[in-house]
Amino acid sequence: MKILIIVTSTGTFANGKLATGLWLSEFTHIYHSAKESGYDITVANPKGGYTPIDPESLKAIFLDEMSEKYWEKPEFKKLLDHANSLDNLLEQQFDCVYLAGGHGAMYDFPDNEALKTIVRKQDESGRIVSAICHGVSGLLNV
Questions:
Q1: What is the pLDDT of residue 82?
Q2: Residues 62, 67, 72, 74: is their CA dihedral positive or negative?
Q3: Sign, Cα dihedral of 136, 137, 140, 142
Q4: pLDDT for the residue 14
Q5: Which end of the chain is more exposed for a tag (fewer CB within 10 A), N or C?
Q6: Beta-bridge partners for 3
Q7: How far apart are CA 81 and CA 122, in angstroms?
Q8: What integer pLDDT is reported at residue 73 of this predicted model?
Q9: Beta strands at 128-131 and 96-99: parallel, antiparallel or unpaired
Q10: Contact at 8 Å (CB) between 139 and 106?
């Protein structure tokens, strides 16, 4: 099974002063389940490359044990630092597309043409589209 996990590439709120990004646990939990199930996982964001992490999601009150263990692994951080660009995945087919949350998604998901194309094709072919929290903003304009 092939799964595409889409994460944000936006690292600040609209005012440009307050940091945001991917809410880490909204990525790690599906990543862990997919990895444990032997799925082929592709991680992508609108720009490709670096995925900012919301610093609030790294605070002890929000950082669960599983997410913390992943966050401590350099190879895991490397995965998020080198995300695929959505533009490069337009011709690929996935069994599941998952839109991860975090406030950054509100800025780069709704109007991203590649994201809209991927989600629309996924839905029209009857394959799974799922989202969590602010990740649902990627469904708005499809």
A1: 98
A2: negative
A3: negative
A4: 93
A5: N
A6: 41, 96
A7: 26
A8: 97
A9: parallel
A10: no
Average pLDDT of the chain to the nearest whole number: 97
Distance between CA atoms of residues 108 and 35, nearest Å: 26
> What's the pLDDT at 12?
97
Quick check: 124 and 118 in contact, CB under 8 A?
no
The closest alpha carbon to 105, from 60, 55, 51, 31, belongs to: 51
Structure tokens at 59: 């605070």
- The kind and range of the H/E element at 100 are none
Chain-centroid distance, C-alpha 6: 3
Q: Residues of the chain whose pLDDT is less than 50?
A: none
- What was the pLDDT predicted at 84? 98
Sequence-distant (≥ 6) Cβ neighbours of residue 52 within 8 angstroms = 8, 9, 10, 11, 19, 20, 21, 22, 104
Beta strands (DSSP E) in 22-123 are 40-45, 84-85, 96-99
Closest among 55, 50, 96, 100 to 77, alpha carbons compared: 50
Q: Phi, psi at residue 49, to the nearest 5°?
A: 85, -140
